[in-house]
Amino acid sequence: MPKHTLTGNIKRHAAFPSKILRNRRDVLVYLPLGYRRFSRRRYPVLYLQDGQNVFDAATSFFGVEWGVDETAQRLIRKNLIEPLIIVAVANTGEDRIHEYAPTRGVIEAKRKKRSRGLARSYARFLIEELKPYIDNRYWTKPEAEFTGLGGSSLGALLTLSLGLWFPNVFTRLIVMSPSVWWDDCVIYKMVEELDKKLPLKIWLDTGTREPGWERTRGLLDRLIEKGWRLGDDLSYTEIEGGDHSEGAWAARVGPALRFLFLAKAGKS
Fold it and tell me: pLDDT for 113-126, tens place per residue?
């Protein structure tokens, strides 16, 4: 068992309950350098999926974590990003594919097994249960313009889906190695059916060793067609030789945070 690798001021909310999903999950909250309980300074918030992998090698997949806590500490200390609160929301194991899927796509073709497509219910859990709790307990900036969402793989597909559905809640998105293939690339249709571009700032990436990585280019093209501008409210990176793994995503955390939470000039 790997040792715990939590860095900085991290609060644990064990077995956080959801009446909507009828389950419980651990939630870890990273508080930035300078955070004070009795100060009234407020901070933007980033919610990350697959929370087991975000901060701690002891709970992460194959003992490889994203190192978001260490990366945030370093970037905040260097004034490269604005101080922010980061909420790591654990998945629930077998229910993960159901909670993260935006549609009832096929899981196993031979057995005709489908996901229950509970992403909207999961969104309700985040919006109606977890976010109010975080906003009441910590010094957050609760408005959509200061609220981010992120994930990788199916968690990235969930992230973009929720951004498209609820731009009044989440506007800064980290979309790493998204499962574009899901349900015959249903995310293409979701973007194409937008009436207009939404006020979302999106980090999008993929690795060239990931099966079907070219589909992410297709997603990029559709976002650009809807009005997103590269280098402005959309960042796209293809990592040559990048694979589909926690280690690969860990290497992209810094650039993603810098794109979405860049420190304002002169801010201390």
Answer: 899 999 999 999 99
What's the predicted TM-score (pTM) here? 0.96
Distance CA 68, CA 261 (A): 13
Is residue 268 scored above 50 in pLDDT?
A: no
pLDDT of residue 62: 81
pLDDT of residue 109: 66
Give the DSSP per-residue string, the chain: -PPP---SEEEEEEEEEETTTTEEEEEEEEE-TT--TT----B-EEEESSGGGTS-TTTSGGG----HHHHHHHHHHTTSB---EEEEE---GGGHHHHH-SS--EEETTTTEE----HHHHHHIIIIIIHHHHHHHS-B--SGGGEEEEEETHHHHHHHHHHHH-TTT--EEEEES--TTHHHHHHHHHHHT-SS--S-EEEEEEETTSTTTHHHHHHHHHHHHTT--BTTTEEEEEETT--SSHHHHHTTHHHHHHHHSBPPTT--
Q: What tokens were used for 114?
A: 């489908």
Strands 172-176 and 147-152 turn out to be: parallel
Residue 153 in contact with residue 179, Cβ under 8 Å?
yes
Residue 129 has pLDDT above 80, yes or no: yes
How far apart are alpha carbons 164 and 65 in whole angstroms?
28
Q: What are phi and psi of 174, to 5 degrees?
A: -105, 110
